[in-house]
Amino acid sequence: MTVYKGYMKIVKRNLGLILMYVVIFAGITVLFQQFSSADPAGSYQAESVRIAVVDEDRGSLAEGLKTYLGQFHEVTAAEHDKARLQEDLFYRNVEYIIWIPEDFLKPALWKGRRLTLPRFRDPIRRFM
Question: Residue-wise over 54-73: b if at least 16 C-beta within 10 A, else e?
């Protein structure tokens, strides 16, 4: 109880200073709210990503995937040249590479496995 009484004495002695800090903090918070945009949901903007697709399957599902991604992003076709793809990532010509292997749909339909696509990202922008 002695510690609590000592704490309360210190708080009572510095009550004006504590109230001043609270008022300043509340005032700055209100100012930031007033100057921020009125519609926070309207400030969101989707970002388009440059995607390279290496399509070795050339099936209807692969074409559908490319069409779907093309609605939101910049999709370009690429050849299966690992050095060239790494160069494109390094020079930021593309930000994401999707490789669709030949007959990638068959294991999913007949063996019941999940569809997985190898993905390659830009290693620097991965953490941004």
Answer: bbebebeebeebbeebeeeb
pLDDT tens profile 21-32: 999 999 999 998
Residue 121 has φ and ψ, to the nearest 5°, of -110, 165
Distance between CA atoms of 101 and 118, rounded to whole angstroms? Answer: 9
DSSP result, 75-122: EEE--S-HHHHHHHHHTTS-SEEEEE-TT-SHHHHHS-PPP---EEE-
What one-character DSSP code corresponds to residue 14? T
3-state SS assignment for residue 64: helix
Residue 6 is classified by DSSP as H
Residue 84 has pLDDT above 70, yes or no: yes
